[in-house]
UniProtKB/TrEMBL annotation:
Transmembrane spans: none
Stored InterPro entries: Glutathione-S-Trfase_C-like, Glutathione-S-Trfase_C_sf, GST_Omega-like_C, GST_Omega/GSH
Pfam families per the UniProt record, alphabetical: GST_C_2
Top-level taxonomy: Eukaryota, Cryptophyceae, Pyrenomonadales, Geminigeraceae, Hanusia
Domain of life: Eukaryota
Record domain GST C-terminal: where: 1-120
PROSITE patterns (alphabetical): GST_CTER
MF terms in GO: glutathione transferase activity
Official protein name in the record: GST C-terminal domain-containing protein
GO cellular component: cytoplasm
Gene3D superfamilies recorded: 1.20.1050.10
Length: 153
C-alpha cells in the first residue's frame, strides 16, 4: 500500500515529469511540469531525511522506479529537458540515496553513462538538432554515502 502511494506521485510528477518538461510545447505546460517536478523532489528529500528508502528500511520497486530518473537527472535531464533548478547532488539525502543504490553491484552494471547520454541526446533531433553530446561534469558516485546511518522508520 505504501509503495502504491509513493508511486502514485513519483511516476507522474518525477519519472514522467522530466518528459513533461522536455517535450512541453507551451511555456505554461513547461512551468507546471517544472514546478510539479521540483515540488516532488523536495518531498523525496524530506522523506529521505527520515527513512533510508522511500517506504522504510528496505529497497523496493518504488526506489528502483525513482532511481532510474535520478541517475539520469544531472547528466541528461538538467540540460536536455531544461530541469535546471537544482541538480540531484544539491539534495544531500537524495544524492547519498542515489549513490547507495548505484553502488549495489546488481544495479551498477546496468548504468552505462556513455550510452545513456548518447541515446537521449541523439534520439530526438528536434531537441538537439546537431546531436552535440555535452561533456558535463564528473560526479563520483562511488564515493562513500551515509545511508547506512539511517534509522529504521
Amino acid at each position: 500500500k505504501e509503495i502504491d502511494e509513493i508511486n502514485s506521485w513519483v511516476y507522474p510528477r518525477i519519472n514522467d515529469g522530466v518528459y513533461r518538461c522536455g517535450f512541453a510545447q507551451k511555456q505554461d505546460a513547461y512551468e507546471k511540469a517544472f514546478d510539479d517536478l521540483f515540488e516532488s523532489l523536495d518531498k523525496v528529500e524530506e522523506i529521505l531525511s527520515r527513512k533510508r528508502y522511500l517506504v522504510g528500511d528496505r529497497l523496493t520497486i518504488a526506489d528502483i522506479r525513482l532511481f532510474v530518473t535520478l541517475i539520469r537527472f544531472d547528466p541528461v535531464y538538467v540540460v536536455y529537458f531544461k530541469t535546471d533548478q537544482s541538480r540531484i547532488d544539491d539534495y544531500p539525502n537524495m544524492f547519498n540515496y542515489m549513490k547507495e543504490i548505484y553502488q549495489m553491484p546488481e544495479i551498477k552494471t546496468t548504468v552505462v553513462f556513455p550510452h545513456i547520454k548518447t541515446h537521449y541526446l541523439s534520439s530526438h533531433p528536434k531537441l538537439n538538432y546537431y546531436g552535440i553530446i555535452p561533456k558535463g561534469r564528473q560526479v563520483d558516485l562511488d564515493a562513500p554515502h551515509n545511508r547506512h546511518e539511517m534509522k529504521s522508520a
